[in-house]
Amino acid sequence: MISSTKQELPPGVIQYASAREVPQDRQKYWAQRRDIFSKFDEGIWMTDNAWFETTSELIAAKIASEIATYAPTEKEHLIDAFCGVGGNTIAFALSGRWKTIWAIEKDDATIKCARHNAQVYGVSKKINFVKSDVMEVLKGRLKTQAKQGVIFASPPWGGPTYSDSNVFDLKQMSPYGLEELYGTLHNASKYLALFLPRNSDLQQIADLAGNDESNPQTARRPLK
C-alpha cells in the first residue's frame, strides 16, 4: 500500500478522504471510485478532470484484452496516446502482452498521478511515461516506436457534457477533433485503436476510416 498525506501531494493532485470533501458535481464519480480503480483505497491519486475522464477498471481490462487478442503477434510495443491518470495504461501493463508500453500525457499533475497509480498496482517498471503533447512526440521521439507498434487513444471528449447529445459530434472533442486526431495517429501507425463515446456520430468515423474490414486500421469491434 502507498500512503501519503495531503501536504505531500503535488499541485493539482487530489486525494479525498471522505465524501464530505467531494464537490457536489463530483459526488456521483466518488460513489463509483472503486469501479474506476479497485485499489482506490490504497492511495490512488486523481485530478479534478480524471473523475470523469478515466476508463473504469473493468472496461479498461476488456479493452486491453481485445487489443491483445486482435493485434498482430509481431507487434510487441504499445503507445497509450492519452494516458491520463493511468486507467488504461495500467490495464495494458497488467495484461502482460506488451514488451514495451509508452504512456503519453502532457499535463504535469496528471502524469504524476499516472506514475503513482502504476506504483499502487505494481506495474510502474513496465511503463515508460512521457510528458509531452502526443501530436508532437509521435512525429519525433516516438516516431520509430509508433511505426513498429500499436497506438491506443482514449482522447479527451471535451468534458462530461458529451452525453447530453443523442449523437455526439466528434469534431467538438477538445482539444483535438476527430479528423486532426485520426490524421496524426494514423500517419504514425497503421495499427490504431480509438476509444470514443458510445453516442459518437458513426458517419464521421466511417468517412475517415472507410468500411474495408480487411485493413487493420479500419476494422471496428464494439465493446459490450
Structure write-up:
The protein is built from ten helices and five strands, in the order ααααβαβαβααβαβα. Strand 4 (150-153), helix 9 (178-188) and strand 5 form a beta-alpha-beta unit. 35% of the residues lie in helices and 10% in strands. The protein has helices spanning 27-31, 33-36, 50-53, 57-70, 87-95, 108-120, 134-137, 143-148, 178-188, 202-209; strands spanning 77-80, 100-105, 127-131, 150-153, 192-194. The longest helix is centred in the first third of the chain and has 14 residues, at 57-70. The chain starts with 26 loop residues before the first helix and ends in a 15-residue tail after the last helix. Helix 4 (57-70) packs across helix 5 (87-95). Strands 3-2-1-4-5 form a five-stranded parallel beta sheet, with helices on both faces. The protein has 224 residues and is an alpha/beta fold. The chain is globular and about 50 Å long.
